[in-house]
Design brief:
The chain has 387 residues and is an alpha/beta fold. It has helices at 67-74, 79-84, 89-98, 101-116, 133-149, 172-189, 207-220, 236-242, 256-265, 273-278, 287-293, 313-324, 328-334, 337-342, 368-372, and strands at residues 14-19, 22-28, 48-51, 53-55, 120-126, 153-161, 195-198, 225-228, 247-250, 268-271, 297-299, 359-362, 379-383. The strands form four sheets. It has a four-stranded parallel β-sheet with strand order 4-5-6-7. Strands 8-9-10-11 form a four-stranded parallel β-sheet. The chain is globular.
Length: 387
């Protein structure tokens, strides 16, 4: 996935050398440095080798599930009826608050394992279903524990500004003062936060409110990212760009001014076809404008119980191609190189000397096969930090 003349940076008859968990050489066999020629070696037997996958936007820790709500909607129930029956995001908040740390961990691990089985070695996990101080901290502790229980790098994002909980309905600023900002300070103090996220939308927080959260992040020296322009255009991505955001995510309703702001800030566009599919949206993100202005595109599962109950990054790659018209090369870059960039990780996402040896070995001959097939997992081997 190193950019250059060859599509995908693909090398035929290549050699990958690993030393101390990092890539020591990646290139054609003919160029292997002589001192490496006697290193113990393994024949990949014609397999395709790519960087391991990076899932850069998930809400994979949560209580309960929303299958009943899914069913009700298909039986004709309205959004209001579902909300009255205690459904929607409120039901996930209630279930997440009620669950113990052990229970949240036990329910998240099978989802995590499904991602790892497809070659994911770096996983971003957000809080945002606790919405009180203790429950937000609990979610982040579970996220950290996932990184200890499984061979995967976990990056956490604090998403206290995900929704206004019922007890603060109509008072988003008071929620920020009483809960969201104090919880951020505490979580940061406990080493639980790698980045700060928010949901900028009519049903969530305004740009002014998100700016308050970003100011707090800045004061703590934490990078920011934002759910922006998913359902409407509020100028969230432009705001995030002013704060040098690592990424803005969703972006279906983004305009060209917003795209330009992202380009100037070097903010990555994270596209989430699973939510687009589940919500049966019709407006696609402005992929052509991202190309025109040179905004890097990443893709992710957005794994969450409400709008994207999806735990396959390979299916996400396929959806990004079929629904958003990304090329298979763009989609694979979106789940490797650009996903790493969306997390501010400069040591992975490409097979390149000096990078982490996070590698996926596939039973495939051409990378387009990873995007083309639906519901098939060709992973042969997954290497995380050389192991
Ligand atoms: N974007 C979404 O679509 C959701 N959160 C977000 O930031 C929905 C979350 C849910 O319904 O549980
Ligand atoms: Fe999300």
């Amino acid at each position: 996935m190193v950019t250059g003349a060859a599509p995908y940076g693909l090398i035929d008859d290549g050699v990958l050398a690993i030393e101390d968990g990092a890539i020591a050489f990646c290139g054609p066999l003919a160029e292997l440095p002589t001192h490496m020629t006697h290193w113990p070696s393994q024949d990949a037997e014609g397999a395709l080798i790519t960087p391991a996958l990076v899932d850069c936007h998930t809400h994979i820790v949560f209580g309960g599930n929303r299958a009943r709500e899914f069913e009700m909607r298909l039986e004709g129930a309205t959004y209001e009826a579902i909300a009255r029956a205690g459904g929607g995001i409120v039901s996930t908040v209630t279930a997440t608050r009620a669950a113990s740390e052990e229970e949240l961990l036990a329910s998240a691990l099978p989802r995590v394992d499904t991602l790892l089985a497809e070659g994911v070695t770096t996983l971003e996990i957000k809080s945002g279903y606790g919405l009180d101080i203790d429950s937000e901290l609990k979610m982040l502790r579970v996220a950290r524990r996932i990184g200890k229980e499984r061979p995967v790098t976990v990056r956490t994002s604090y998403l206290g500004a995900h929704a206004v909980p019922a007890e603060y309905k109509g008072n988003p600023d008071r929620y920020l003062d009483d809960v969201c900002l104090p919880a951020l300070s505490r979580a940061h103090k406990e080493g639980l936060v790698d980045a700060v996220d928010g949901f900028c939308e009519g049903i969530a927080f305004s740009t002014d409110q998100i700016a308050r959260v970003f100011e707090a992040a800045k004061a703590l020296g934490l990078p920011v990212k934002l759910h922006a322009e998913q359902l409407s255009n509020l100028g969230g991505a432009a705001l995030a760009a002013r704060y040098g955001a690592l990424s803005s995510d969703h972006l279906e309703h983004l305009d060209e001014a917003g795209v330009k702001a992202m380009a100037e800030a070097g903010t990555v566009a994270v596209l989430l076809p699973g939510a687009f599919y589940t919500l049966r949206e019709t407006q696609s993100p402005p992929v052509e404008l991202f190309r025109k202005h040179g905004v890097a595109m990443a893709i992710s599962t957005d794994c969450n119980p409400g709008t994207s109950p999806l735990t396959s990054l390979l299916l996400t790659i396929n959806m990004a191609c079929t629904l958003f018209r990304l090329t298979p090369e763009e989609a694979l870059a979106g789940a490797t190189r650009n996903a790493a960039k969306a997390l501010g990780l400069a040591d992975r996402g490409m097979l390149k000397a000096g990078y982490r040896a996070d590698i996926a070995v596939w039973n495939a001959t051409h990378p387009a096969e990873l995007a083309y097939r639906i519901g098939f997992n060709p992973l042969k081997e997954r290497i995380w930090g050389g192991a």
